[in-house]
């Protein structure tokens, strides 16, 4: 067998590699230099962001990562240009012309979440450690990444929400302001004095630790319910975090209940009367009328309450109008006894 042609090919590859070896070594050195430059730029961005007052931790993390990635991408392009002299950035752009469209469609959601994350970090509708509510999820913001935001719920679970969802939809930020107003409806009896109950509720709220005096607590009548007069107690707290809200609710409601009970204010609860369909008392309505779940009666059915009351009144009236019989015989017996 003739291996001369194969040997010539191997020698040609070896000579080409030896010619390319200086470029490869120089390219590797350049890439290592760009890597350390990227690390230095990353550290510089971190120091600059740390010097600013009230700096955004999420934005600082984003800028650190972007600066590192951009410098590293520049280093890769320079390295490839050194290793492959025929390669130019223009050729890369032309190669990515059609492929970029396909990549854009394939990674549409990723790019959308990335841009939404950047906008969230720049506009800062909420920050790390804020307590937010999004749909059925509520908790404390742990991280704001370029793809998603993670929150820790109050029962100790982690929820990962894509940034595009938070950027497009409505989000409630519970800790956006220093103060927050709480409220609760208290029902008192119709026979109680509303002014006295209102004053007692205000007195109870003012005596609770953590309730602000400015804005002052309020007690407003909001409803004349079926079994109570509802007074809405409203008070402000600071800070408005979940633990403070629960503690304020507990202390305020306990103080209001104890104060109203101590002063004889009734706290009624709804009452309900149940009539069974198999009842046969005469005071249980008119059975001759059609009722839900009870067919209309025929023949002898129990009388209604009004009919029974009317019959009793007529009987009583007739008994009072009838003349009383005379009873002389007992008197005669008594007189005979006297004579004896």
TrEMBL record:
The keyword Cell membrane applies. Residues 291-340 are annotated as: Disordered. Residues 109-171 form the Mechanosensitive ion channel MscS domain. Residues 328-340 have a biased composition (Basic and acidic residues). One of its GO terms (molecular function) is mechanosensitive monoatomic ion channel activity. It is a multi-pass membrane protein. The chain crosses the membrane at residues 20-41, 62-84, 90-107. One of its GO terms (cellular component) is plasma membrane. Its main location: membrane. Pfam families: MS_channel_1st_1, MS_channel_2nd, MS_channel_3rd. It is found in: Cell membrane. It comes from the Bacteria. Keywords: Cell membrane, Membrane, Transmembrane, Transmembrane helix. Gene3D superfamilies: 1.10.287.1260, 2.30.30.60, 3.30.70.100. Residues 183-266 form the Mechanosensitive ion channel MscS C-terminal domain. InterPro entries: LSM_dom_sf, MS_channel_C, MSC_TM_helix, MscS_archaea/bacteria_type, MscS_beta-dom_sf, MscS_channel_2nd, MscS_channel_C_sf, MscS_channel_CS. PANTHER family: SMALL-CONDUCTANCE MECHANOSENSITIVE CHANNEL. Belongs to the MscS (TC 1.A.23) family. This is Mechanosensitive ion channel protein MscS.
């Amino acid at each position: 067998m003739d291996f001369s042609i194969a040997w010539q090919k191997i020698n040609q590859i070896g000579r080409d590699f030896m010619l390319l070896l200086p470029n490869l070594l120089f390219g590797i050195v350049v890439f290592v230099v760009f890597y350390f430059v990227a690390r230095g730029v990353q550290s510089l961005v971190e120091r600059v962001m740390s010097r600013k007052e009230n700096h955004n931790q999420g934005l600082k993390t984003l800028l650190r990562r972007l600066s590192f990635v951009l410098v590293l991408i520049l280093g890769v392009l320079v390295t490839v240009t050194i290793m492959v002299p025929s390669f130019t950035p223009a050729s890369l752009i032309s190669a990515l012309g059609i492929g970029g469209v396909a990549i854009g469609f394939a990674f549409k959601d990723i790019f959308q979440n990335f841009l939404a994350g950047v906008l969230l970090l720049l506009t800062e509708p909420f920050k790390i450690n804020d307590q937010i509510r999004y749909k059925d999820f509520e908790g404390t913001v742990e991280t704001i990444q370029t793809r998603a935001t993670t929150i820790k719920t109050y029962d100790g679970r982690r929820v990962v929400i894509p940034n595009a969802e938070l950027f497009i939809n409505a989000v409630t930020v519970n800790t956006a302001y220093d103060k927050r107003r709480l409220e609760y409806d208290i029902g008192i009896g119709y026979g109680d004095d509303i002014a006295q109950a209102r004053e007692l509720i205000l007195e109870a709220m003012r005596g609770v630790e953590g309730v602000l005096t400015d804005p002052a607590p309020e007690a407003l009548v909001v409803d004349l319910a079926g079994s109570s007069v509802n007074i809405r107690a409203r008070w402000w707290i600071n800070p408005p975090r979940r633990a403070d809200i629960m503690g304020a609710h507990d202390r305020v409601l306990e103080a209001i209940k104890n104060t109203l009970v101590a002063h004889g204010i009734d706290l009624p609860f709804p009452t309900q009367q149940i009539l069974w369909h198999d009842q046969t008392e005469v005071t249980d309505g008119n059975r001759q009328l059609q009722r839900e779940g009870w067919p209309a009666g025929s023949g002898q059915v129990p009388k209604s309450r009004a009919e029974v009351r009317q019959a009793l009144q007529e009987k009583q009236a007739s008994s009072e109008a009838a003349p009383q019989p005379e009873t002389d015989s007992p008197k005669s017996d008594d007189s005979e006894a006297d004579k004896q």
